[in-house]
Amino acid sequence: MTDTADGRGGHSGTATATPPDGTRLPSGARGEPEPHGLGASVLPTDAYPKAQGTFPYAADLWAEGLLWAAVHRSPHPHARIVSIDTEQAAAMPGVRAVVTAADVPGDQAHGRKVADQPAFARDVVRYYGEPIAAVAADHPDAARLAAAAIAVEYEVLEPVTDPEKSFEAEPLHPDGNLLRHIPLRYGDPDVTGDVVVEGLYRVGRQDPAPIGAEAALAVPRPDGGVEIYTASTDPHTDRDLAAACFGLPPESVKIVVTGVPGAMGDREDAALQVPLGLLAMRTGCPVKIALTREESFLGHAHRHPTLLRYRHHADGEGRLVKVEAQILLDGGAYADTSSDALAAAVSFACGPYVVPHAVIDGWVVRTNNPPSGHVRGEGAMQVCAAYEGQMDKLAERLGIDPAELRLRNVMATGDLLPTGQTVTCPAPVAELLTAVREEPLPPLPKDTPEADWLLPGGPGGAGEPSAVRRGVGYALGMVHLLGAEGTDEVSTATVKVSGPVATVMCAAVEAGQGFDTLARQIVQETLGIEEVHVASVDTDQPPSGAGGRGRHTWVSGGAVERAAKMVRTQLLQPLAAKFGMSTELLTIADGKITSYDGVLSTTVAEALEGKELWATAQCRPHPTEPLDESGQGDAFVGMAFAAVRAVVDVDIELGSVRVVEIALAQDVGRVLNPRQLRARIEAGVTQGVGTALTEHLRVAKGVVRHPDFTAYALPTALDAPDIRIVKLVEERDVVAPFGAKAVSTVPVVTAPAAVAGAVRAASGRPVNKLPIRPQAAVSEG
């Protein structure tokens, strides 16, 4: 759980990497004292190499006889392929192979939920930048020149880029344009309230925008298979998808996880693995690719652009009676994880509020826009911006303080979601909102020369100081934990102990959530062993599933805990038998084993001397079920909540916005690593601020405009507000290992809605679109 620890090092096989044994030493093993166990601020093992620039990522990999790959991409969002001529490219100096759809020996398409996305477009291109062919050459420049020399004749077709028009448009795919429709009906659909407010909201297309280069290396194997070194967050699924396209059994393909340079969902596709694997097997040589920034923007999935229509009904006291909503997600050209995003959007469309009656319709459709997929908080973030806009409208209509209105409607443990599911986990929403509401507001800037930096836009960025208005906005957000709708969440872990050293083997990818650190903490606390190694990940290990939604903290951490406890029993049983007592009467603390009565006292090192112990265990949470034809069902394992208060300064003449402060309260279940938890929350809030104000991937008629960091503005250190974590509620979720909840996603979901509410309060404008453009914040008064 750290905002900088975002990768896992170590590789095996032909590729060069460090350390050679594929494990990483804890800082304590390097002679530096550090705290131990759960609840301590244990430093990530990769913190120093990342700070020093020595941590190996996929872009750093090298192999003997290395070739370089490049991809030819479609310049049209929608077109029919008439012909593909690769002869000129294949004849260029240094070119070793060219592959197209005709060279895919197995399944032509892949996909995590629906196998609808071609490895290479064969007959039709459905989005701008879709891969058509790939080239392997001796030099990266030669590969790019050859890719550019591939001649493709197109019959350009009119793209469908408006999701509302997708319903009536000609099918863009053999499966049709409608990916999913969820009609949620809860309570009496005919009930009305004394007060009704309506709103139309739009959320734009955000990109995961990983700073690290997206890269991979494929190495052919003597048995006809291939090893692929890449920053995958779900290696076993990637292996299975790639193997199906290669026409090979899964055991002939191995995915080795390299350091992951940030992952907000964009690492969950097979866009690099399939072309590289084909080229490596065709040439018999290792093949590497490193995407340019433009290719990165074009190649991976983005957050679903969303159109939301809402109508809230309430009584005269502001208590919600009914919520009506229509939610339309733009899924882009292919299905990806759009079904999951829609389920979250519809299920949480009313927010963490008690709503007796609800009529929610959600759709996700195909268009010729760039593909949409899993990005942190998908579905939940979009609806949060809308339902909190509605709560602000309702508060204004009734003349009630916005925070007070929310308090009258908040959800608690035991309440029902509109899906009919009972909220059994801790849901201290009122406590969270009260905490941020009572936090003192930040002071106004003083009239000093330094105060120019505190105005919207910085020095010279504001028109007149007198045009600056301060606004305060509130938002409550919720997300689900783990997979949903019947997803089988299971993870396997092995803990081995040899003398004073323990090793954890688990295919849970360290993608920034801090799993490696957590695994060390679990073993340290359970076994009293200081030196704990975490092995690197590859598909020779049992699967542990994809990262995201806190699943590795919950499921993989639970598997590590169970394996460590099994080893603990193996360690203590001989001692307990010798003294005629049960293992439950022995404790391990500070490297010592003691009995309840003090008769037995020895060190863990002495008890382990000459022994090798190991155990393998699984963790599988309780099952869930798909939503039915009325949007009803127990679809989620658990939920997490947050309350955010945003304070902004707005230049109401120029529309520039400065986020002064974000105050946040969050239910975390249990704090496992205070320093990393704080860093994860702060990183999530900052990402939410970017979503609210700057991050927008511009697409015109299906064509991505300016795919670079000049046009796509990520928040910098100067844009990050003062983040005040005013309260962390540690009410443990009894069904979760350690009682902990995921912490990084719910701030991303909640912060944009709070910022929008604050800008609304300062400018008097409706502010119904994210990101907030300057013209939307200019006062009409």
Automatic annotation (TrEMBL):
<dbReference type="InterPro" id="IPR000674">
    <property type="entry name" value="Ald_Oxase/Xan_DH_a/b"/>
</dbReference>
<dbReference type="InterPro" id="IPR008274">
    <property type="entry name" value="AldOxase/xan_DH_MoCoBD1"/>
</dbReference>
<dbReference type="Pfam" id="PF20256">
    <property type="entry name" value="MoCoBD_2"/>
</dbReference>
<dbReference type="InterPro" id="IPR046867">
    <property type="entry name" value="AldOxase/xan_DH_MoCoBD2"/>
</dbReference>
<dbReference type="GO" id="GO:0016491">
    <property type="term" value="F:oxidoreductase activity"/>
</dbReference>
<dbReference type="InterPro" id="IPR036856">
    <property type="entry name" value="Ald_Oxase/Xan_DH_a/b_sf"/>
</dbReference>
<dbReference type="Pfam" id="PF02738">
    <property type="entry name" value="MoCoBD_1"/>
</dbReference>
<dbReference type="InterPro" id="IPR016208">
    <property type="entry name" value="Ald_Oxase/xanthine_DH-like"/>
</dbReference>
<protein>
    <submittedName>
        <fullName>Oxidoreductase</fullName>
    </submittedName>
</protein>
<dbReference type="InterPro" id="IPR037165">
    <property type="entry name" value="AldOxase/xan_DH_Mopterin-bd_sf"/>
</dbReference>
<feature type="region of interest" description="Disordered">
    <location>
        <begin position="1"/>
        <end position="45"/>
    </location>
</feature>
<dbReference type="Pfam" id="PF01315">
    <property type="entry name" value="Ald_Xan_dh_C"/>
</dbReference>
<dbReference type="GO" id="GO:0005506">
    <property type="term" value="F:iron ion binding"/>
</dbReference>
<feature type="domain" description="Aldehyde oxidase/xanthine dehydrogenase a/b hammerhead">
    <location>
        <begin position="52"/>
        <end position="158"/>
    </location>
</feature>
